[in-house]
Amino acid sequence: MLLTNTKWYVIIGLQGCTEQQKGGVKMINTAKIKGRMAELELTQSDVAKALGLSPSTVSQKINNVRALSLDEAEKLSALLNIDVGDFGEFFFTRPVA
Fold this sequence. Notes:
- This protein is mainly alpha-helical.
- Helices cover 53% and strands 4% of the residues.
- It has seven helices and two strands; from the N terminus they run H-H-E-H-H-H-E-H-H.
- The chain has helices at 6-11, 19-22, 30-39, 44-51, 55-62, 70-79, 87-91, and strands at residues 24-25, 68-69.
- The protein has a two-stranded antiparallel ribbon with strand order 1-2.
- Helix 4 packs across helix 5 (55-62).
- The longest helix has 10 residues, at 30-39.
- The termini are far apart.
């Protein structure tokens, strides 16, 4: 799944953003990501190996301490078998009013 195409920015709500703004996803739905990891019996170490990152960096990214790049989000969504239509549910949280 490539998110660099303009239509994906529309689907995930990034239309009208600058390239710099599109560079990192900062609002990971931590519960959904961790839930899918548990379903697939994947550890943060497994995810780290797949993304080429350290386990501590993966932890920071999943817990919204550090931004996840769109490239990393693509790789993680592939690893977690996340459908294109569900991408926004996993990688963007909705603010609570």
